[in-house]
From TrEMBL:
Keywords: Membrane, Transmembrane, Transmembrane helix. It holds the Pfam family 7TM_GPCR_Str. PANTHER family: 7-TRANSMEMBRANE DOMAIN RECEPTOR C.ELEGANS (PTHR22943), SERPENTINE RECEPTOR, CLASS T-RELATED (PTHR22943:SF94). The chain crosses the membrane at residues 19-39, 51-71, 102-122, 143-163, 210-237, 258-283, 289-316. This is Uncharacterized protein. GO terms for cellular component: plasma membrane. One of its GO terms (molecular function) is G protein-coupled olfactory receptor activity. InterPro entries: 7TM_GPCR_serpentine_rcpt_Str. GO terms for biological process: olfactory behavior.
Length: 351
């Protein structure tokens, strides 16, 4: 039986999250746009090919924020089911296309995890194994981008193929959608991992494809986070024992603080929330879908991470201020951006 107050509160919360998603989208678009401009015009030469990693990460954040604002997903659990759903379909596209968008959303999320780990590996090499930076030039740089894309494709295909809508999950989610949001299943688009399914004798058995998918996701998260933690402490250890010139030391410290923010912010906003919802179905713990803090935390990430980079790295911080106070002509800035674009398009020839 529906609780009128519960439905009303859930509908209000859903509306609040929708407005919040749009706000974070516009903020993410502005801040990442500013960061991309600063990377192209204000990055010192000794940043090396790290600028391409930062640029790619920022572009991925823009894609993630755009998809999140368009589909406005809610991430939750019910019994032994982990699901991501939306009732938003502004363009009234077919269900298969909505599933594709939810899959691409997962792809972008996965690529963010791997990009962070790759950036930490680069900084680790730049601090103590500079001869290995050759593996971030030319075709090797393309290898890293390809690896990021491969992990993202892996995540997205798992969602698209394994996490499809089915009648058993429909029956589990129908009461949630009806009683909490006053939605019919025909109005809902979702992808889900049901850890348990019922066989022909109506017995509950493990759903091995879904379990494989969850283990796959958990492995990507665990390996990337382990790389981040190991590299972080290794970089900290080396920076305490190596002497640099004052200029280079200042730059390294700023990049290290930026990396620290790139460890703390993802841990709180994208690692921990998803790890929790991956674990909850194992214990059949219900996560109230009407108050999905997981979705909100994830939407904040594309805003806070680039903002931290801008504020921590002095050349970007000064460049940000100069964007509004500089007397440089627009033609000068356009020339710098065009020059950077040509360098980006020709990275395969970098020595």
């Amino acid at each position: 039986m529906k609780c009128p107050n519960c439905v009303s509160n859930a509908a209000m919360w859903l509306e609040v999250t929708q407005y919040f998603d749009f706000i974070t989208f516009f903020m993410a678009t502005f801040i990442n746009g500013v960061l991309l401009n600063l990377i192209g015009t204000a990055s010192p030469k000794h940043f090396g090919n790290y600028v391409y990693l930062m640029m790619s990460f920022s572009i991925n954040s823009l894609i993630f924020a755009s998809i999140h604002a368009f589909i406005q997903p809610i991430i939750s659990t019910e019994k032994y089911v982990l699901f991501v759903f939306t009732s938003t379909n502004y363009l009234e596209v077919p269900r298969v296309l909505m599933r594709s968008l939810l899959s691409i959303y997962g792809t972008s999320y996965s690529q963010a995890l791997v990009f962070i780990a790759v950036q930490f590996i680069y900084r680790c090499f730049s601090i103590s194994r500079r001869k290995y930076l050759v593996y971030f030039k030319g075709r090797w740089l393309m290898f890293w981008f390809g690896m990021v894309g491969a992990f993202g494709l892996n995540w997205g295909l798992c969602i698209f193929i394994i996490a499809q809508e089915n009648s058993q999950v429909d029956e589990i989610l129908r009461p949630v959608m009806n009683e909490t949001f006053d939605l019919k299943m025909s109005e809902v688009f979702y992808v889900a991992a049901s850890y348990v399914i019922k066989d022909e004798q109506n017995n509950e058995v493990l759903n091995w494809p879904a379990i494989f998918m969850v283990i796959n996701f958990a492995s990507i998260m665990s390996v990337s986070f382990a790389i981040i933690v190991v590299c972080f402490f290794f970089i900290h250890y080396k920076m305490q024992r190596v002497n640099y010139s004052k200029v280079y030391e200042s730059a390294q410290k700023q990049l290290f603080r930026a990396l620290m923010s790139q460890m703390i912010i993802p841990s709180v906003l994208i690692y921990l929330p998803i790890l929790i919802v991956l674990i909850l179905p194992i214990f059949h713990v219900k996560n109230d879908a009407s108050i999905s803090f997981t979705s909100i935390l994830i939407s904040i990430y594309p805003v806070l991470d680039p903002l931290a980079v801008i504020l921590i790295i002095s050349v970007y911080r000064k460049g940000f201020v100069n964007m509004f106070t500089s007397r440089c002509t627009g033609q000068d800035k356009r020339t710098e951006l065009i020059s950077f674009a040509f360098r980006w398009l020709n990275i395969s020839s970098i020595n």
